[in-house]
Amino acid sequence: MSGELRAIVGLDRGVELATVQALLDAQAHVSLASPMGDLDEAWDALDDAICDLVLVACGGEGERALAFIATTVKERPQVPIVVAYQGAPNGFVNAAFEAGADEVLMLPAEDEEVDAPPASEVLFTFQKALARRNGAPSASAQRASRMICVLGPKGGIGKTVVASNLAAALAAEGASVALVDLNLQCGDLALALGLQPDRTIYDLATSGGSLDAEKLDAFLGRHESGVRVLMAPTRPDQASAVSVDFLGRAYSLLRAMHDYVIVDTPPGFTPEVIASIDGASDVCMVATLDVLSLKSAKVGLETLGLMGHDLDRLSLVLNRADSKVGLSVEDVTAIIGRSPDVLVPSHRAITRTVNEAQLIVTSAARSEAARAFKKLARLYEPLAQPSANGAVARRRRLRRG
After folding, report:
1. Which of 241, 14, 19 is nearest to 116 (CA)?
2. Residue 43 CB: number of other CB atoms within 10 A?
3. Are 181 and 276 in contact (CB under 8 A)?
4. What is the DSSP string of 177-232?
5. Are residues 213 and 256 in contact, defined by beta-carbon separation less than 8 angstroms?
6. What are phi and psi of 386, to 5 degrees?
7. Residue 85: exposure state from Cβ atoms within 10 A (0-12, 13-18, ≥19)
8. Which element (helix H / strand E) includes 253?
9. Burial of residue 383 (number of CB atoms within 10 Å: 0-12, 13-18, 19+)
10. How would you label 297-321 residue by residue, b for 16+ Cβ within 10 Å and e otherwise?
11. Global pTM?
């Protein structure tokens, strides 16, 4: 291998050497700063070799790798650390970030019938780690539009309802809004909005040729609210065609084309979700009144903090906030450590509008639930900065009604 990035690679138990070797062989822009060895040899190489980053490959519980990461961060704070983990995460991702890792790559287990991360995704992960450690400005700091990542580590809490109604509420104020369904295996934004998924993000990713604004626009569905929608693949097996590198380019174009980009994410911190958080200007965390959801939200907030996300740019939405289930809003504050910014009440009209492929902010605009979503929209004022295409973003004052 020869290239621009020089890496020191440390191997721990539980990872296949051939898997790591294949991962690096596919990288034309990465070279080894020292021969690949175990964690002790990698530590010694830090004294002798000049490197741009450290790749820690491990599997299983990874306790020794976590100790190596923590020590390296303490002794070599300027060196970015990327973890390549083989097997089921089982909480390891959070532990790696807590130890000080900058990025995590998930490798397939030896007996799994899934592909390794594509070369472009691996290189993008390395570059993100370098940018984080070097303090490079994020994409959100370079654009005038806002990208809001609707997040919730637990499923079934209403992220899609929140994302779609937030998008429609912003569009009703005259903003141009793009809505992205990032649930690449089981996305249902198209169904919830009554749109035919004739052209999806999978079709865009596999269409060939370069990606530009004109091409991207042709793959966006149009909802009656004015929101443009980039829909999820229609089959789970198509998800692997949508790489992290592709998402980064698509987000850049969408932000240049719209005042707001809303991303509806799947549960968990997948590579696609992490890349979306990195590219977002804001995060909207959704939780419900049950201890499982609140525990997941608390862990999610802690993970965002470890990833370096500015928690001042985060809003907390409590969905079904008036459900009589033995928990109160005060209990939510005690469990999560912060008060919800918006309370969305339970309302049978929400379920009815979902079943009818409608949005409550338009079909029942005077309901308490609709008012809650409009309050959420008011938290996101447009940024008064030059946009990516050189035009000055229009500064709108959202109505306070």
Report:
1. 19
2. 18
3. no
4. EEEEE--TTT--HHHHHT---SSBHHHHHTS-S---HHHHHHT-EE-TTS-EEEBP
5. yes
6. -60, 140
7. buried
8. helix 244-257
9. middle
10. bbebbebbebbebeeeebbbbbbbb
11. 0.63
Q: 310-319: per-residue pLDDT in tens?
A: 888 899 999 9
Q: Which residues pair with 261 in a beta bridge?
A: 147, 178
Rounded CA gap, 364 and 361, in Å? 6
DSSP codes, 88-148: --TTHHHHHHHHT-SEEEEEPPTT--SPPPPHHHHHHHHHHHHHHHHTPPPGGGG-SSEEE
**Amino acid making up residue 108:** P
**Largest alpha-carbon pair distance within the chain?**
68
139 contact partners, CB below 8 Å, separation of at least 6: 147, 248, 251, 252, 255, 278, 279
SS3 content of the chain, % helix, strand, coil (to 5): 40, 20, 40
End-to-end CA gap in the chain: 61
DSSP 8-state symbol, 365: T
Residue 304 is given by DSSP the state H
Q: What is the DSSP letter of 14?
A: T
How far apart are the C-alpha atoms of 57 and 13, rounded to whole Å? 9
68-105 per-position pLDDT tens digit: 999 999 898 889 999 999 877 667 877 888 888 988 88
Among the listed ranges 53-57, 100-104, 176-180, which one has the minimum average pLDDT value? 100-104
102 Cβ partners below 8 Å, 6+ apart? 80, 81, 82, 128, 129, 132, 133
User: Element (H or E) spanning 74, and its range?
Assistant: helix 63-75
Tell me the sheet residues that pair with 104. 83
Backbone phi, then psi, for 358, in 5-degree steps?
A: -120, 175
User: How far is the C-alpha of 250 from the C-alpha of 241, rounded, in Å?
Assistant: 14
Residue 286 exposure: Cα atoms within 13 Å on the Cβ side: 27
